[in-house]
Amino acid sequence: MLRILSLGNSRAISSGIFYLLIFLINSCVQEINLKMALKVLRALDVAKTQYYHFKAIIIAGMGLFTDSYDLFCIPLVMSMIGRIYYPKVDRTVDPKKWFEVPTVIASTMFCVTLMGAVIGQLVFGRLGDRVGRRRVYGVSLVMMIVASIGCGLTLSKLPLMVFVSLGFFRFLLGIGIGGDYPLSATIMAEFANKRTRGAFIAGVFSMQGFGILMSSLVFMIVCSIFEASANKHNLEKPSELAPSVNIAPVPPESDMAWRLILMFGAIPASMTYYWRMKMPETARFTALVEKNTLQAARDIGKVMNLPLSTIQEDVEMINTPNTRAAFSNTYPFFSREFLRRHGRDLIAASINWFLIDIVFYSLNLFQYHVFSGHLIPKIQMNIYKDALQIARFQALIAICATIPGYILTVYMIDHIGRVKIQAIGFFFMAVSLFTIAKVNMNGDHPNLFIILYGFTFFFSNFGPNTTTFIVPAELFPARFRATCHGISGAVGKVGAIIGSIGYVWASRDPPNGLGVSTTLMVMGGVCGLGFFVTYFFTRETMGRSLEENENVDELTGVWFVRFWPHKFSARRNEVKGFGLLEMN
């Protein structure tokens, strides 16, 4: 009996020792993985600016280039479609209203892409966090390529079929565009070092300005070529038509011109597809989400000339609560803990993006009113010259205001911070819009109109239009980063839909609408609200690693007040000082 008990105890002790060894081995493996992952993150944060950083800007930025080309060429295309499918000359109405696409159809064509973008940002943002940024990055690009080609391949020339087909492919295009936003921002944020991260993400987004310029240039080139080859009889001006003629002549080949312009958007996207597929998964996703730190280190070595053997930093220097928190946090997205830690940041980022897109997309529709004092009436021009003059003014604004705003943001954002640039942008946009409204009330000042309009566009890009793209990519944990960016962007595109539809209807003369001046004052008030939300609720992310930004201390968790970074440090030092005094 004693031998049986002794044998049982020996087996129990052996089993206990075995499970203890397994536990110790697992703990050691986890500690090794943690140390290696800390080295990987440290290597990313302190890496010098290298060739691959600029290559990543081009690869990711070309998606934004295509996005803006497709989004901002549609107003130009709609002006040409109006001449082609609505050529009736009605001498009982104001000639300014001739050849216009009905407001409902025009609004639908503007908004259907934005509706697709809302879906794309939500779906691809979530997929980017679940299956990886790289695995879905090419899917969004393929959707943009297919949809851009499809926009020009309407088989019928009946107006109804043209708009149904165009609307479908514009919606599909919007899904691809929406998917590109959270993926491009997240990928660039996770590849960049913390010293110049803001400039790199802003560099990606600045490609939007060049896409706007390209849409105007392509439009001018295509229209010039088609005009040179057209039959002169079909280029007759509407003002020269005989009284008995009720249909303005249109060159039959003009129906091909707008299709080629839309299909051109597939070219820059196609050029970067191969390089997107060659990109490795971001090291932060691999290390923090997939927990494969060895593969993350290998990927860094491939693209940044940092062999695994050279990542030899002292672990104790980087083994901090901030970095350990990135591995230990396991709370789900739909949880009270996420809301406590990141709820304010997500709401603030979403509201800021919502407010700027209301104004930004309204400004795009407002440009015809701005340029009207310099535009030759459409009845005195053929279809190509009418489209050309609008494209020239859009190119002028892009060169003089839009692109300089982006460039200044790239240069300044890591020196003065995201919050200050965003607040400055909102403030001066509000001032500009109130001034434009006042000028519009007092009479026609076309030159001043253009200057103030350009001023507004400059501060939208040296301001919230750029920073709202950057901040959501820096604030949230790696496993929620693309999702939160997608949510913020989707809320922003809802604002764009409201702004696009709202401006079309509100800017009409009373009693049918508020009038242009009142609408502009409302837009100025929206910018004032954006300044308020930015100053009091938006957290600065400059100069800190992504893991430090996601860590929450006793002050960053406050919902109703935003503290500047130096105030965080001052409060911490103050608390530590009191602690030392009490100990003494």
UniProtKB/TrEMBL annotation:
GO terms for biological process: phosphate ion transport. Keywords: Membrane, Phosphate transport, Sugar transport, Symport, Transmembrane, Transmembrane helix, Transport. Residues 56-542 form the Major facilitator superfamily (MFS) profile domain. GO terms for cellular component: membrane. The chain crosses the membrane at residues 12-29, 57-81, 101-124, 136-155, 161-179, 200-222, 256-275, 346-370, 390-411, 423-441, 447-471, 483-506, 518-537. It catalyses: phosphate(in) + H(+)(in) = phosphate(out) + H(+)(out). Signal peptide: none annotated. It is found in: Membrane. It comes from the Eukaryota. GO terms for molecular function: symporter activity. Gene3D superfamilies: MFS general substrate transporter like domains. It is a multi-pass membrane protein. SUPFAM superfamilies: MFS general substrate transporter. Belongs to the major facilitator superfamily. Phosphate:H(+) symporter (TC 2.A.1.9) family. This is Putative major facilitator, sugar transporter-like, Major facilitator superfamily domain protein. The lineage of its organism: Eukaryota, Viridiplantae, Streptophyta, Embryophyta, Tracheophyta.
